[in-house]
Amino acid sequence: MKFVLLAAAVLPMLGGGTSIAHAASQRLTNNDVCNTYAEDAIRDIQLALYAHCTGITGARWDQRQSAHFNFCMQNMSRGNSAVVQSEKDVRHGIAVQCAAANHTKYYPSGPGSGVAY
């Protein structure tokens, strides 16, 4: 129960509340949406690494921002915003859950950024 409350409080602060489809509907270009997606991915990866999470391997956890941007652009150009949103949600959920389990505090310090302590 404690984690659920923490996640409910933290997810919106970390960008978990903004959907890819909503951003795309606001007349943002795929480039804008995917830049934000890639920045969010790197932030979640940094949190997971800082929290010493296990199982942080594979494309989802690639530390190259360009890899996440390219994944997003490929899917958005095919109309697959749901795939992009799902990947964002899963990665974010894993990072936040692991950080909470490892007692890592995460403080957003501005749009698209954050500091783990």
Q: Could you characterize what this model shows?
A:
The protein is mainly α and 117 residues long. It has one domain (2-116). The chain is 60% helix and 8% strand. The chain contains five helices and two strands; from the N terminus they run αααααββ. The chain has a two-stranded antiparallel ribbon with strand order 1-2. A hairpin with a 2-residue loop joins β1 and β2. α1 crosses α5 (81-101) and α3 runs parallel beside α5.
DSSP helix count? 5
Given helix and strand content, the structural type is mainly alpha
Count of beta strands: 2
* Count of discrete domains: 1
Roughly what percent helix? Answer: 55-70%
Shape: elongated
As laid out across the biggest beta sheet, the strand order is: 1-2
Mean pLDDT: 79
Strand portion: 5-15%
Query: What is the N-to-C succession of helices and strands?
Result: HHHHHEE
N→C terminal distance: 23 Å
Radius of gyration: 14 Å
Q: How would a textbook summarize the main sheet?
A: 2 strands, antiparallel
Q: Which residues form runs of ≥5 with pLDDT under 50? A: 1-15
What does this entry show, briefly?
With 117 residues, the chain is mainly alpha-helical. The chain contains five helices and two strands.
